[in-house]
C-alpha cells in the first residue's frame, strides 16, 4: 500500500484547521515535495481489487494531491475558474478536470476519471463529495491530514458532519421553511438518493439543529464560489 505519511505531513503543515491552504508557504518552502512523493508510484503496481477502504483512502488522497499539485504549479491565481475579459472561460475550466495529466500506476488519469469512474461508479460512496476538493471555496474544505484505510469511514463521516453543519454550505431558514444547500447536492443528487429517500432526509441525518426536514421540504441552491481556497 502507498505510504500516505509524506502527504499527511504536508497537509498538516500547510492546511489550517479551517481547511484553508497556505499555497505561498508551500510553494516557497517545499515546491517539489508533493511531486516527489507522487512520482514514487508512477510505475508502482496497484492491486485494483483491494479492500474498499484501501481504495477509498487511496483515490481520495490522490484526487486531492493531484488537485493541489496543479494549483501549486499555477500559483498565484485567484480562482480555479479562469476569466478572459471578465467572461468565465468554461473550456479552460473543464480542461482542468478532463486532461489526463496525472501519471500513476503506469497509467494516465484525469480528475474526472478518478471522480466519476472510480470513486462514484466503482466505489459508490456518496460521502466522497465532502472529501474530494477542486481547490475552490465552494467545494469541501481540505482535511488537514491524509485519509487512511483503517480510518477512512470515520473520516468521511466527519467530513459529512463538517460540510452539512457549515452555515455557508447548508442551512435551514425557519421563517420560510426552506433548506439552502451547496450545489454539490444538486449536481450529485442521484448519489445521495442511493442511500436516502430524499435530499432533505439525507441532510437531516447529519444536521445538528432540529429542523423539520422531510421529502417535501423546499430546497434552494446557494451560489457556488470558485475563488481559490487559500489562507492568505
Overview of the molecule:
- The protein is mainly alpha-helical.
- Helices cover 41% and strands 9% of the residues.
- It has ten helices and seven strands.
- It has helices at 5-14, 23-29, 33-39, 52-74, 90-98, 111-122, 152-164, 184-187, 189-193, 199-204; strands spanning 83-84, 87-88, 102-104, 107-109, 170-173, 178-181, 219-221.
- Strands 5-6-7 form a three-stranded mixed sheet. A two-stranded antiparallel ribbon has the order 1-2.
- β1 (83-84) and β2 form a beta hairpin.
- The radius of gyration is 18 Å and the shape is globular.
- It starts with a helix and ends in an 11-residue tail after the last strand.
- 31% of the residues are buried.
- The mean pLDDT is 95.
Please give the order of strands in the largest beta sheet.
5-6-7
Could you give the distance between the termini? 35 Å
Question: What is the overall pLDDT average?
Answer: 95
State the shape. Answer: globular
Amino acid at each position: 500500500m502507498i505510504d500516505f505519511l509524506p502527504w499527511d505531513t504536508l497537509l498538516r503543515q500547510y492546511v489550517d484547521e479551517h481547511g484553508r491552504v497556505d499555497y505561498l508557504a508551500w510553494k516557497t518552502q517545499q515546491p517539489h515535495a508533493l511531486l516527489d512523493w507522487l512520482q514514487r508510484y508512477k510505475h508502482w503496481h496497484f492491486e485494483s481489487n483491494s479492500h474498499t477502504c484501501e481504495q477509498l483512502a487511496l483515490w481520495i488522497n490522490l484526487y486531492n494531491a493531484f488537485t493541489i499539485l496543479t494549483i501549486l504549479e499555477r500559483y498565484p491565481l485567484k480562482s480555479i475558474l479562469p476569466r478572459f475579459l471578465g467572461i468565465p472561460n468554461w473550456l479552460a475550466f473543464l480542461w482542468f478536470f478532463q486532461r489526463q495529466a496525472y501519471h500513476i500506476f503506469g497509467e494516465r488519469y484525469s480528475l474526472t476519471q478518478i471522480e466519476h469512474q472510480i470513486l462514484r461508479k466503482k466505489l459508490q460512496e456518496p460521502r466522497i463529495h465532502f472529501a474530494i476538493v477542486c481547490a475552490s471555496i465552494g467545494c469541501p474544505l481540505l482535511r488537514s491530514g491524509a485519509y487512511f484505510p483503517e480510518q477512512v469511514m470515520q473520516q468521511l463521516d466527519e467530513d459529512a458532519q463538517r460540510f452539512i453543519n457549515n452555515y455557508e454550505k447548508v442551512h435551514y431558514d425557519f421563517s420560510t421553511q426552506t433548506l439552502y444547500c451547496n450545489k454539490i447536492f444538486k449536481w450529485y443528487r442521484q448519489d445521495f438518493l442511493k442511500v436516502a429517500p430524499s435530499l432533505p432526509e439525507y441532510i437531516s441525518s447529519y444536521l445538528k439543529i432540529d429542523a423539520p426536514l422531510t421529502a417535501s421540504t423546499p430546497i434552494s441552491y446557494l451560489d457556488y464560489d470558485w475563488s481559490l481556497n487559500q489562507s492568505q
